[in-house]
Every structure is written in structure tokens, then in C-alpha cells.
């Protein structure tokens, strides 16, 4: 087993640089691939100045910013095809994890042939409102999960019982949070990787659908954790809540159409629901001062 790591950077030198300082010394890496997703600031130049030529750190840049999935795919293909990695950790710049965490993930990934994805349990500042792993939802459940207030009100129904997997070291789930996970490179290529038609949001469910269609399974480790700074990188790039919500709706509609295969009536219902959610976001953020 040869383990690599992919870090996607977009206008976020500070977090990417800090991540490299935290993990570049881990002995488990075959290499760390930093993908600059065509930053519009001087992030790439700063990263080159700080990290070009460093042992086991490889800097590449995409020709254009085609989104989260396309950027990570570029890094995964480089790690597998150029560095010879068999497994790749995809880590957001704003995550914190130990080398022991990666080692345990690697052992889990090698335990059974059908495993395509492994993730540790995420710890963040959302008080559990963001799940680390979950089952794939129906269309109606997905709609409820799209609204910031609805997904809090229906948290138990959408995320399952809080004690799921309690006492176990690992459990099978359909999807895991995309901030930090390990993928089997060969299986990732076989399923086509992330869907590059989606710019941002919803990548986890799409990858889960692609892996599941080929009979591959996803594991969440219950006895190992990593810390996520609650989307610090995304919030830095897309500071406007309404704009982030609009991106969520665009990705959600793509997922409904291409992976849940909704009909025209369901599409109209979803668009009406999205309109209500945008009003909800405006009211809660502008009037009540809520943040997501």
C-alpha cells in the first residue's frame, strides 16, 4: 500500500500552508499533491516560494477552476499515475489529523476488497449538526436536508439515531463527509472519481452513488477522529451565505436529476422549496443574524 495526500487550494494560502506544515513530516506519505485550482490571488506563487522542491511535496495547477471535484480529481490522478499511490487521502486545508489517524484508515481500507472509501469521525463546531457518515436519502429527505433550518429540525430523521455504531470501531455507511477521507485509487478511477459537472457541494452523495453502483462500500471509523474548522476554507472564498446556498441548490438539483432521477413534478416542487429556503436564509441571516 502506498498512501498519498491531496490538498486543494483556492485563494487560501494561509490554510494550505498551515496544513502542509502540520502533515508534511508524516512518514506514511508517498507524496503530498497540492492542487492550486487556478487561484485568482497570489496563492500559487506563495506556495511555490514556500514549498517548491520540498521532499515529497508536489505542486500542480489546473488550467481553469472547474470546481471542487475536478480539482481533487486532478490531484488523485497525479498521485496514482505519477507517484504510484494505491490510496489517497483527500484533505481540506482546514482539517487537523494525526499520522496515526491516517495509519488506521489505511489498515481499514486494506481489510476487505470491497472497501472503496474510509473516513474517520469528524469533530467540528456544529455541535453534531453535521454528520460524519450517513445513509443515502430519498428525494423528500434530501429536500429537507437542503434547508438550513429544516435539516436542524429533522436532524434525527435525516442523520439516523445518535448512537448508531456505538461501541463499534467501524461501521458501514453510504457516504462520508468530504473534508477528510481516504479513497482506493483504482476504485476511484473505475467509478470515474468526482463528477466534474458539479462545481461545489453534494460531492459526497454523488461519490457514494458511484461507488455503490459498482458494489464498493464506505466505512466510517468510530474510534478515530479528525477536526474540521467548520468550512473555514469555503467560507473564506464564498463569504455570502445566500451565494453559498444558491450553489447548494444548483448542485442539489443536478443530483436529483442525474442520480435520483426525479420527474418534472418533483423538479417543480424542489424549485418551489428552494425559493422558500432562500427567503428563510435571507430572514435568518439578515434579521436574526444567524450564521451557517
Quick summary:
The protein is of the alpha/beta class and 292 residues long.
Task: List key phrases describing it.
single chain; 292 residues; alpha/beta; Spore Coat Polysaccharide Biosynthesis Protein SpsA, Chain A; 9-stranded mixed β-sheet; two-stranded antiparallel sheet; 11 strands; 45% helix
Mean of all residue-level pLDDT scores: 91
Output the radius of gyration: 19 Å
CATH class of the domain at 1-93: Alpha Beta
**Distance between the first and last residues' Cα:** 39 Å
Q: What fraction strand?
A: 15-25%
Helix proportion? 40-55%
Count of beta strands: 11
| Computed structural class | alpha/beta
How is this fold's topology laid out?
Layout (H helix, E strand, L loop, with lengths): L2 E7 L3 H11 L5 E8 L6 H9 L5 E5 L6 H14 L5 E5 L3 E2 L2 H13 L3 E9 L9 E2 L4 H8 L3 H4 L1 H5 L10 E4 L1 E2 L3 E5 H7 L11 H11 L3 E12 L3 H6 L3 H18 L5 H24 L5
Parallel strand pairs: 1-2, 1-4, 2-3, 6-11
Antiparallel strand pairs: 4-10, 5-11, 6-10, 7-9, 8-11
Helix pairs in contact: 1-2, 11-12
